[in-house]
Amino acid sequence: MTQDATDQAVKKLFIKTYGCQMNVYDSQRMAETMGAEGYVLTEDQAEADMVLLNTCHIREKAAEKLYSDLGRLRPLKAGKPDLKIGVAGCVAQAEGEEIVRRMPLVDLVVGPQTYHRLPQMLRGEAPRILTEFPEEDKFDHLPERRATRRAPAAFLTVQEGCDKFCAFCVVPYTRGAEVSRPAERILAEARDLVARGVREITLLGQNVNGWHGQGADGREWGFGRLIRAIAEIDGLDRIRYTTSHPNDMARDLIEAHRDIPALMPYLHLPLQSGSDRILKAMNRKHTAEQYLRLIDRIKDARPDILLTSDFIVGFPGETDEDHAQTLRMIRQVGFGTAFSFKYSPRPGTPAHGRATLPDDVVDARLQEVQALLQDQQQAVQDSMVGRTLGVLFEKAGRLPGQMVGKSDYLHPVFVEAPDAQPGDLVQVRIVETARNSLRGELVA
Ligand code: SAH
Ligand code: SF4
Ligand code: F3S
Predict the structure, then answer these.
(1) pLDDT value of position 112
(2) 57 CA → ligand 2 middle, Å
(3) Mutate to test the pocket of ligand 3, among 26, 30, 56 (most ligand atoms within 8 A of CB)
(4) Per-residue pLDDT reduced to its tens digit, 6-55
């Protein structure tokens, strides 16, 4: 084959990923699926033969972003009629045909549980809009993960969907019912990742600690037991997981934090609000006090654990007193960092249609929450100075000879280390803190 013929055979795929880590994982699996069809990834949208937008529906802003990005693709498609444009992910699931109606330039719409059928859709052997929740499991149909060397830190989805139905949340509708992948499949995927150079795995699920299933020993396993099995994989140094619901922090999982050195001292445990009234209205099914007691038990097991969280500000019915309780809870727990969002009413969710609060009230509350969280984040980062921490190098830093990696507590750390490679797990003494990162020196 001549070079020209090779070039023609290779098609280029551009993927843009919005939303959570589960979408990041899905985008990788979509790239692998299309890779089996001869597509290679490109970073340059302009040279793509196919553009896939893997979308998020969690807040209105996230969903609307899709339509502005699609609008910007119009000139590209006009100049390149063969260009295929696909919308995947949670907006695809939630809005389906509506997307094609609003944006006729879209060729394919595929949901988070159907993207294994992308190649058939592209060949016209499957409908161009595929958003039903299939009986079959996409994981049974995806190609083997490609035998390339991988970055030192990887995601692995172990659990899909959610049955919790928090009043504000679209996930149970966009991702479907809660399903745990079989332990054997997860372990096989984890071993494969490690064999290809991965040293840190983050287990993913919207309710990841609700994972359960039959283990290799034929017994019913919970998430803590799964982590123990994964920790036995030779060459795997670090395990993380996200995101967890407080009500699924089983004893076995808390004990895993006590017993398993590879399980990093970091826990993202969304609280959403510090007010019992609001927690109830949100259908979170726990109180502030229960959350505090849970944190106590987790800290008994792993005293240095860094807690992070999510908060929704301005949920319908939130009073000044409810807001004050949120601030009080944040002070009491002390978070390493946390995301806080203005409540966004989502179609189809139970809270949709409840009276919302005036924008200026919500803005002011959000600012207060964010200022407090920012102070806490800075204090935690400052407290790292002088400590020696494990850092897993992921890539070269901004300066020559510099590497950047994550500490045990997930802080990005910049280190001068001219002889180091991505994948090196080193001991670093933290010498300085910046706004969102740390600087450290190699410990001899
Ligand atoms: N499964 C996770 C959260 C997934 S969504 C959990 O149970 O905590 C990620 C975060 O987005 C949520 O924790 C919440 O803080 C925020 N979020 C979800 N729906 C939202 C909405 N309608 N408006 C504003 N923020 C929202
Ligand atoms: Fe959404 Fe609640 Fe499920 Fe989290 S637990 S994904 S917030 S419904
Ligand atoms: Fe968004 Fe879907 Fe994740 S709505 S947060 S991409 S599960």
Answers:
(1) 96
(2) 13
(3) 56
(4) 455 799 999 999 999 999 999 999 999 999 899 999 999 999 999 999 99
Q: Using only C-alpha atoms, what is the Rg of the chain?
A: 23
* Segments in 359-419 forming alpha helices (H): 359-384
Ligand nearest to the CA of 273: 1
Q: Which atom of ligand 1 is nearest to the CA of 206?
A: 1
Task: For the chain, count helices (H), then strands (E).
Answer: 16, 21
Beta-carbon contacts of 232 under 8 Å, excluding residues fewer than 6 positions away, are: none
Topology annotation, domain 139-384: pyruvate-formate lyase- activating enzyme (3.80.30)
* Beta carbon of 164 within 6 Å of any ligand 2 atom: yes
* CATH architecture assignment, domain 388-442: Beta Barrel (2.40)
Residue with tokens 């395990």: 239
Atom of ligand 2 nearest to the CA of 172: 8
- Between β-strands 50-55 and 11-17, what pairing exists: parallel, antiparallel or unpaired? parallel
CA 171 to ligand 3 centroid distance, Å: 6
DSSP annotation string for 181-246: PPHHHHHHHHHHHHHTT--EEEEE-TTGGG-EEE-TTSSEEEHHHHHHHHHTSTT--EEEEE---G
- Ligand 3 site, residue 20, Cβ cutoff 6 A: yes
For 74-132, write each residue's pLDDT tens digit.
999 999 999 999 999 999 999 999 999 999 999 999 999 999 999 999 999 999 999 98
CATH 2.40.50, the chain: domain bounds: 388-442
Say how far apart CA 123 and CA 50 lie, in whole Å: 13
109 bridge partner residues? 87, 129
